[in-house]
Here is the input.
Amino acid sequence: MEKPTIILGIESSCDDTSASVLANNVLLSNVIASQSVHNDYGGVVPELASRAHQQNIIPVVDAAIKNAGVDKSDISAVAFTLGPGLLGSLLVGTSFAKSFATALGIPLIDINHLQAHILSHFIEEQGESKELPSFPFLCLLVSGGNSQIVLVKDYFDMEIVGQTIDDAAGEAFDKCAKVMGLPYPGGPHIDKLSQRGNPSAFKFAKPNIKGLDYSFSGLKTSFLYFLRDKLKEDGQFIENNKCDLSASLQKTIIDILTKKLILASKIYKINTIALAGGVSANNGLRNEIFALGKQLGWKVFVPKPSFTTDNAAMVAVAGYYKYLNGQYCDIVKTPFARTII
Ligand code: KG4
Here is the structure.
């Protein structure tokens, strides 16, 4: 049997230090060290994030290689997130990847974090045989920093056909959760509370933006003003209604997201639909996409929850497909904070 390509993936774009080893596109290990140092600040503190990456990177890579049961000398290439993300955080993963690849004399492969989220659909697990999305497909990429509809024509041929003109969907979850006094990041808390709430209890403003673009800043303001008025009448309003508030907010965000996705599917005549990014862990969104899939005849691909948040397995799988194309990167390449796909 032909020896598999072994890819070491490294992800350090925000506040998760992660390393993963894949044999071709099959997962051997995926280690993630999340940073609790930000919990007291209500958001990620960039300087603290890069310091924590420095502490975590060596033990995380070491654990990923050991868990995979491979030797350093087996590794064919190192794939790492070049951007977008926090520059200080990206520098840690980038510098480590460069040194590691140089020391082993193997190729270095730079990965776009957003493309990696989308390509997470191509990760297979050992003993699993799953259907992979076929090109072209539409991917709703929703995270703390992005809300985009991406037309995926091939592994590295992607076009953003719609995107937020202000806040991202994850930001809307997190900022509204903060107004409700929930811890950061608020998205998972809203998701949990929603399960016991009535999604039709309250109505919040929905944007009226042309085409496939999104806007979430109006919703945030509408939510804030609604609570401010209600709190004047009842100081306990949030506490007494937190499940209904969460469910109504979550439904509004899902309606906004799916309306444009349905439109995109009609415009591009594409019925293969995928979700990706941190917000794709949301149970309400996942259920709604499956329901729409049944109703509209979509073939739906939803990532495993462990591949929705930042992880190096998605970086490694993107690296594997670049490796097959011989798309290596020069050692002088430097990280970037913002980008389009
Ligand atoms: O992709 P991600 O891990 O980080 C980047 O932005 O790169 O996404 C994080 C976002 C946060 O806004 C978080 O609140 C949101 O994903 N999130 C969720 C859920 N899990 C994570 N939002 C709603 N429901 C969830 N279950």
Remarks:
- The chain is about 40% helix and 20% strand.
- The chain has a mean pLDDT of 96.
- Residues 237-268 form the longest helix (32 residues).
- The longest strand covers residues 26-34.
